[in-house]
Amino acid sequence: MPLPFIKSVTAMCAAFVILLAQSLPAYAQSLLRDTEIEETLKEYTHPILRAAGLTPSNVDLYLVNDPSLNAFVTRGQNIFLHSGLILESETPNQLKGVIAHEAGHIAGGHIVRSDYGNRSAYGAMLIAAGIGLAAILAGEGQAGALVLGGSQQFGAIEALAYSRVNESAADQYAAQYMERTGQSGQGLIDFFDKFRAQEVLSQARRYPYFRGHPLSADRIDALRERVEESEYAVKPDTEEHQFRLDMTKAKLRGFLEGPQLVFSRFPPTDTSKPARYARAVAHFKAADLRNALREIDSLIAEEPDNPYYYELKAQILYESGQGNKSIEPAKRALELKPDAPLLKLALAQAYLESGETEKVNMSVDLLKSALQSERQNSYMWYTLSRAYGELNQEALAKYATAEQAYAIGDVQRARSFAQRAQKDLPRNEPQWRRASDIIVISDAELAKKRSKRSRRKPLSFQVSRN
Fold first, then answer.
1. What is the domain range of residue 80?
2. How many other C-beta atoms are found inside a 10 Å radius of the C-beta of residue 96?
3. How far apart are CA 387 and CA 365, in angstroms?
4. Which of 247, 265, 448, 453 keeps 20 to 30 A from 52, CA to CA?
């Protein structure tokens, strides 16, 4: 069930959530998780990835909570988009153009061939960032942020800056991918034109995106020539895709900007769906339950089959101390979007908070189902351990705690709880066998760490007194 919007992930997991704690250093970036926004980005991205010869399931797309304009890729086929990039995109075609450009870097092997690939600093940064990212995605925002903070700020990664040759190649790839999907490549040109002034600014004053992706008139002219040759050069975005982007931007502004700024951007005279969506979130953040529910109920009345309106209503009610009332909209959201792991988690937590045995059992079923899709989500394991504890199934609670610890890389704790669980679990249970696997793997990892520490010990010398 959605809990407070910005808190330590060890204590919450919202349907729309920032995966870091408030108290972290300012340089530590955060990732955003939201089923609706993720679905929209997938709908935009997957056709482009297929056009690039990439398998969508092998490419991970992450939304970074950062108002600066930036996008970048890392090894392992990871694409990162800043929230600021989405908010600056006026049309889906502009956003898709940037995504296609980043896909071009992956398909073109630009990261692997980059000169930075041979630099120890770059390698160390990627290793540290990978560890931190794994922790964040597992649900441990604070632990992940501390690691990321020691590597590089997401918004200032300049080790991935490419040569102008690679940038031009990625532009051409982007135009090619957009044409293959029957879409115009004009969006990327419009995006570059919008920030044309970045070309003459000093490196320090440029947006992060244009520090890592150097802009030039020659690049834009070459891209324009390629796009104008396409039969889809002037094809506009569909109304549906534009609406999805407008709703995404409204939701992001509602959650990421202060309520008064949101009310200024979307005054009561604006009765559009994006405006009401943003105001519903802003009223919720301002602790104005009545107006928050009024806005979201107006949207539900117009679109009774939109799961995300019910999802937000459930969050508003839950956060306002009306947990029992939040169950019905949470159930309706999941009925309309039955395969969404985060919606399963939301309803599971609502059931768990009720304290009723039947509902707690339903919570367990939902969590086990959600974990089939997101097995490394440590908060799901944490919530499952709570549910087992509520049912007095202590052995299973210990097992779930072991899985939670293992998901965030705390092998010492994982081993400890796996051993405790094994003592009480029947040997023929799959959880007993999985606990055994955790113990074996953890022992190997701990032995490896001890070996590394011993190799790093400085040599000691005895000075002769003769």
1. 9-228
2. 30
3. 10
4. 247
Encoded amino acid at 171, one letter = D
What is the mean pLDDT of the segment spanning 77-83? 93
Query: Has residue 192 been placed in a domain?
Result: yes
Residue bearing the bigger pLDDT, 305 or 159 = 305
Confidence of residue 302 (pLDDT cuts 50, 70, 90): very high
Spatial separation of the C-alpha atoms in residues 105 and 171, rounded to whole Å: 9
State the pTM of this model: 0.80
**Contacts of 106 by beta carbon, 8 Å cutoff, 6+ apart:** 52, 54, 59, 73, 77, 79
Strand order in the sheet with 78-82: 16-18, 31-34, 60-64, 78-82, 71-74
**Which residues contact residue 289 at a Cβ distance below 8 angstroms, ignoring those fewer than 6 apart?**
283, 316, 320
Per DSSP, the chain holds a count of helices (H) and strands (E) of 22, 5
Q: Is pLDDT larger for residue 455 or for residue 284?
A: 284
As a whole number, mean pLDDT of residues 44-69 equals: 94
Round the average pLDDT of the chain to a whole number and report it.
Answer: 82
Mean pLDDT for the stretch of residues 289-303: 98
Query: pLDDT (tens digit, 9 = 90+) per residue, 205-240?
Result: 445 555 545 556 778 889 999 999 999 999 999 999
Model confidence pLDDT, tens digit, residues 15-55 = 566 654 333 333 345 889 999 999 999 999 999 999 999 99
Distance CA 220, CA 214 (A): 11
Mutual angle of helices 239-256 and 35-51, in 10-degree steps: 130
Domains of the chain: total: 2
Q: Per the domain annotation, does 179 fall within a domain?
A: yes
pLDDT at res. 71: 86
Task: Tell me if 3 is assigned to some domain.
Answer: no
| CA–CA dist 163, 13 (Å, integer) | 40
For helices 307-319 and 323-336, give the axis angle rounded to 10 degrees. Answer: 160
Beta-bridge partners for 291: none
Q: For residues 214 and 229, what is the distance between their CA atoms, to the nearest angstrom? A: 24
3-state DSSP assignment of residue 233: coil
Among 201, 228, 255, give the residue marking a domain's end. 228
Which of 207, 228, 249 represents a domain boundary (last residue)?
228
Q: What are phi and psi of 317, to 5 degrees?
A: -65, -45
Could you tell me if residue 153 is inside a domain? yes
Q: What pLDDT is recorded for position 371? A: 97
